[in-house]
Specification:
β5 (about 80) and β6 (about 85-90) form a beta hairpin. The chain has an 8-stranded antiparallel beta barrel. It is α+β, with helices and mostly antiparallel strands. The radius of gyration is 19 Å and the shape is globular. It has one helix at about 1-20, and strands at about 25-35, 40-55, 55-65, 65-75, 80, 85-90, 110-115, 120-125.
Length: about 120
């Protein structure tokens, strides 16, 4: 009987550990850059939230009056506010796009850009 109770307690403990890795992971303060045609139009502190969803992550970036919801999943296009989006890095100093991140030595920002209609580009540091 004691082994059965111990086994049950261990199973519950491990399922709790597995569950703790899912769901909402908290808020962080970051710097968000709104860009249009490769030019910065707004630089603001923003709140970023990360949630794990089945097969990927949902990132939310919020600063008044904007909220950007970004869904990133393995083997599927990234989606920002229901629009398929490209992701890439820019130099944090010059804001030029980085063609090969493996050959770049410096600070970067991570960017999301809507494919169609070409318009919103959000970069985060």
């Amino acid at each position: 009987m004691g082994k059965l109770i111990l086994g049950f307690a261990l199973a519950l403990g491990f399922s709790g550990v597995a569950y703790a890795g899912m769901g909402f992971q908290g808020d962080d303060l970051q710097i968000c850059y709104l860009m249009k045609s490769g030019k910065i139009t707004k630089t603001v502190p923003c709140i970023s939230s990360l949630s794990y969803v089945s097969g990927g992550v949902m990132r939310t970036y919020h600063f008044e009056p904007y909220t950007f919801n970004v869904l990133e999943m393995e083997d599927v296009d990234t989606v920002m506010n229901d629009v398929v989006s490209d992701t890439y890095f820019r130099s944090a100093k010059s804001f030029n796009k980085i063609k090969d991140i493996n050959k770049f030595n410096g600070d970067t920002v991570y960017c999301y850009a809507e494919r169609k209609p070409k318009g919103v580009e959000l970069c985060v540091k």
